[in-house]
Write a structure and sequence with these properties.
mainly beta; 36% strand; Secreted protein; signal
């Protein structure tokens, strides 16, 4: 009798443990996975802006995000500095190279070195870095600039609220000229940066 009760209890417990199918995760913002692989299906429908030296900028916007990719193309190994003026008047510099980082800039008198970049910090945005993962441990092992297609950025409008933007595609060795978008914009003149709706 005890055995029958135990079996009945176990069967009852098993019956109440219904396994529900897992809900698929929501799609990433702009349907872009930030991995440095400029997947054609992810960037389908994006605005393509041809830059100098064979580089290209791919731009997508949603009500909640601004997404773009910088494809260095023939320009070769580069890194990217993104300058954003938000609607509150704050200037942000988002950086992607061997690592990502950000800094808030004063309205006047800032340089590439001052104020310092907070490496690894990405508040309200994400981008890929140019690193190679060890095939066995999957940990970063060798920093490299190739092979990857480019840099992908996803910016959350709720956190950064971008108003104007300037993108600089810069040479790692400092030998080639910077590729800038908008082409005629000036770093110190926010009025010349591209407006974002």
């Amino acid at each position: 009798m005890i055995r029958a009760a135990a079996v009945a209890l176990a069967a009852s417990a098993l019956a109440s443990c219904v396994v529900l199918p897992e809900e698929p995760p929501p799609p990433p913002p702009c349907n872009v996975t930030v991995d440095g692989s400029l997947n054609v299906s992810e960037w389908q429908g994006a605005q393509r802006i041809d830059l100098t030296s064979g580089a290209a900028l791919w731009l997508k916007q949603t009500p909640s995000h601004v997404c773009f990719a910088v494809e260095p193309g023939e320009a070769g190994p580069r890194y990217v500095d993104v300058f954003i003026a938000d609607r509150a008047g704050t200037l942000h510099n988002l950086h992607a190279s061997m690592q990502v980082g950000e800094r808030t800039l004063p309205q006047r008198r800032w340089t590439d070195e001052n104020p310092e970049t907070a490496w690894g910090q990405t508040t309200g945005w994400s981008a890929n870095a140019a690193t190679q993962l060890d095939p066995e441990t999957h940990a970063p092992s060798i920093e490299q600039v190739v092979p990857f297609d480019g840099y992908e950025f996803v910016i959350d409008r709720a956190q950064l609220n971008p108003w104007r933007i300037r993108i600089e595609v810069r040479d790692f060795d400092g030998e080639a000229r910077d590729i800038v978008w908008p082409a005629q914009s000036r770093r110190t003149d926010i009025a010349t940066w591209a407006p974002l709706p």
